[in-house]
Recover the amino acids of this structure.
């Protein structure tokens, strides 16, 4: 393949190709076949797979008990701009070799903030963005979404848009403006708000109503600014119940949808649903997708998985086929994502220290989604699943049930129907049958 970077970091690895499920090549897709049509679209277009800059290029494996374990060859320069260019070279080499079309970033992922002033940081972001633009033009890789990191710097310890100090809120606003400018300059298709510290630890020192209304004002300003600069994309809120805050305001999809509507953001905002955030909120991934889809707000997906034996955001690469197949049933029936794609917000384990591990991880993730999609498509088209579901709700499809759905009845009508009808017939939910159908298509 044509190599577009100044330096090559993954020399031993070529372009990852689809070889089918009988291939033993660990550096090949077994199920993700980008050009294969499923339900009227190529897999490539269904998923719009994206690489997350922060995990893949910046995540060296540090945890609260020890430092990073991965010495990335692109992270050697002490000059922040040179380091940013090296990282970009590695990023585009990786995405291109994976055959993905997209990437996503936080402002501080593409270039180090260090202890730079706001003006200096803006300058670094702008310089890096122009380098990224060159790489994008040369490779055809696109920006799925950009965002600002408003949670790592100690200044945001009390939150960003929810900060009790206006000066910090304004500082966050400046950072969002810079991140939006970069996203727009790079033709970013969407912009994300994930509010890691937009929440609280103790209600004793918190004015929740003011904090939430301030976030609403902040998001309306961001929207108005972006629109004034010609941004046509969608804004996403990414729900998460906790970590690092104890009570995050964007707890789950339902909470975030209520916030979006309450704050008058529903024309411009949708949701970015992350698997591990769903499970931290005691939901399933598919539940969060369904809630979003039913509100017309299924925008994008952050793909990963949790560890079901513990309660934090482990951000492992997706490999749970059953979970993904159930999710893809919702995805297909909802007509896919609105504007977004599938971003691998996932990290290799701390002890996965070879550069190849980054490839194995993304290959596995893409294959898991591809399998999930194929299974869901097969369930919908070649089983009696849809008929069973239709039968279960048949009483609302005709007669008095249909009148109820059409809003033609009152409580007196329900009373009369119940009086005339006797005890309702017992109808099984047949959950095990549904589960068997899904398993049969795996
Ligand atoms: C962290 C979030 C974060 C967002 C972007 O838990 O998933 O990575 O996706 O800020
Ligand atoms: Ni995420
Ligand atoms: Ni996360």
């Amino acid at each position: 393949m044509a190599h577009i970077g100044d330096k090559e970091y993954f020399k031993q690895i070529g372009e990852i190709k689809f070889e089918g499920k009988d291939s033993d090549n660990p550096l090949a897709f077994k199920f993700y076949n980008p050009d294969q049509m499923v339900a009227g679209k190529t897999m490539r277009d269904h998923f719009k797979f994206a690489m997350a800059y922060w995990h893949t290029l910046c995540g060296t494996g540090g945890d609260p008990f020890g430092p990073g374990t991965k010495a990335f060859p692109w992270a050697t320069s002490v000059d922040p701009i040179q380091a940013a260019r090296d990282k970009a070279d590695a990023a585009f080499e990786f995405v291109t070799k994976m055959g993905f079309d997209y990437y996503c970033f936080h402002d501080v992922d593409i270039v180090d903030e260090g202890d730079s002033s706001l003006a200096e940081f803006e300058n670094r972001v702008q310089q890096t963005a122009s380098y990224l633009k060159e790489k994008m033009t040369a490779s055809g890789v696109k920006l799925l979404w950009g965002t600002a990191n408003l949670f790592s710097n100690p200044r945001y310890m009390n939150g960003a848009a929810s900060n009790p100090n206006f000066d910090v809120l304004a500082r966050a606003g400046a950072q969002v403006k810079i991140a939006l400018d970069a996203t727009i300059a790079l033709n970013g298709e969407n912009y994300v708000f994930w509010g890691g510290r937009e929440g609280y630890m103790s209600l004793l020192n918190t004015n929740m109503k003011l904090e939430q209304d301030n976030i609403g004002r902040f998001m309306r300003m961001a929207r108005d600014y972006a629109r004034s600069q010609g941004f046509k994309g969608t804004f996403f809120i990414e729900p998460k119940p906790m970590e690092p805050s104890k009570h995050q305001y964007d707890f789950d999809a339902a909470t975030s949808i209520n916030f979006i509507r309450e704050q008058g953001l529903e024309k411009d905002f949708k949701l970015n649903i992350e698997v591990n955030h769903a499970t931290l909120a005691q939901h399933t991934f598919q539940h969060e997708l369904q809630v979003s889809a039913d509100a017309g707000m299924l925008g994008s997906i952050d793909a990963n998985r949790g560890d079901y034996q513990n309660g934090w955001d482990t951000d492992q690469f997706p490999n749970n086929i059953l979970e993904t197949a159930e999710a893809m049933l919702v995805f297909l029936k909802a007509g896919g994502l609105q504007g977004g794609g599938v971003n691998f917000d996932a990290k290799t384990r701390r002890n996965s220290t070879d550069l190849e591990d980054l490839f194995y991880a993304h290959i596995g993730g893409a294959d898991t989604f591809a399998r999930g999609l194929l299974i869901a498509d097969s369930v919908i088209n070649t089983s009696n699943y849809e008929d069973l579901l239709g039968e279960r709700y048949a009483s609302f499809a005709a007669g008095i049930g249909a009148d109820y759905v059409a809003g033609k009845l009152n409580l007196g009508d329900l009373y009369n129907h119940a009086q005339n009808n006797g005890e309702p017939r017992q109808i099984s939910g047949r959950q095990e049958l549904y589960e068997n159908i899904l398993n049969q298509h795996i």
